[in-house]
């Protein structure tokens, strides 16, 4: 059963419609990541759920009950923001304690709760520091502690890691799931970083044009995107897309021309016979060999770019079609430099096909 539910939410500002009949169900203790480019309404949805904004239509339910007649302070919802939003004149202790003081809890209980959450977030040693004395990572943890300290029923995080450095961002991607489990929080997490979405979400809601383009597990969103738009949002380097029109030979084998080279797609693709579509293959599913291989596409190595534990290679076919391949860094093929001839292969078990006109996955 859904613990948090948004039903038919619509919101417009003047003539600009931001959310259009959007619905969402989040289970108790589940983390759903709201993912999409800037301006698609992710933060607007959080504010509507929190009660800061009124929707033009629709309802918000928490634990099966409508909260539309309740103010933000009555909904049991907490938010943490990307700009930290800390009180500059208060030290970290008082920033975290502020929601508890608003509820007029006993001083001893306030001290205990703040120290417990600060210890969990590893900022107990800076509780007497003002925000200007804190690192960005410590500010982020302080903001998160303030959101968690009163045990909210629903926790909403609005791109909280955007303003922290790469090391802290990586560490928090590892820590946040543990913290969510500790508090049994029902979480809505906003981000524009696809890696963050894949790492943190039990499910990912890809928000485009005011609606969810896809709402599914991270694995499904990445490996079985609903359409070309979703596929393009995930992956760095981005997915390779080739416009093709598959044809079937007399033996029932389906072929497509990619980079001027006929490539066997397998008899199982016979439903695509004669249909104009786009073949999508992620760079990590492209192989590279400097010896001829079956079903290989002749290419020339144009550039090699190291990216942490992987190396991206730019390949070009004789008809100037570009192919991006991503190889493990310790792969000797990935260390090749200069313009060299080679053969690219596609992992046909992981390829995707999209309708050329609608972009829908076939």
TrEMBL record:
Tell me the InterPro entries matching this sequence.
AAA+_ATPase (IPR003593), ABC_transporter-like_ATP-bd (IPR003439), ABC_transpr_MalK/UgpC-like (IPR047641), Mo/tungstate-bd_C_term_dom (IPR008995), P-loop_NTPase (IPR027417)
Q: Which domain of life is it from?
A: Bacteria
What Gene3D superfamilies does the record tag this protein with? 2.40.50.100, P-loop containing nucleotide triphosphate hydrolases (3.40.50.300)
Establish whether keyword Cell membrane is in the entry. Answer: yes
Keyword check for Nucleotide-binding: yes
Where does the ABC transporter domain start and stop, copy by copy?
4-234
SMART domains, per the entry: AAA
GO terms of molecular function: ATP binding
Taking the record's annotation, the residue ranges forming a coiled coil are none
Q: Which UniProt keywords apply?
A: ATP-binding, Cell membrane, Membrane, Nucleotide-binding, Translocase, Transport
What is the protein named?
ABC transporter ATP-binding protein
User: What is the scientific name of the source organism?
Assistant: Anaeromyxobacter oryzae
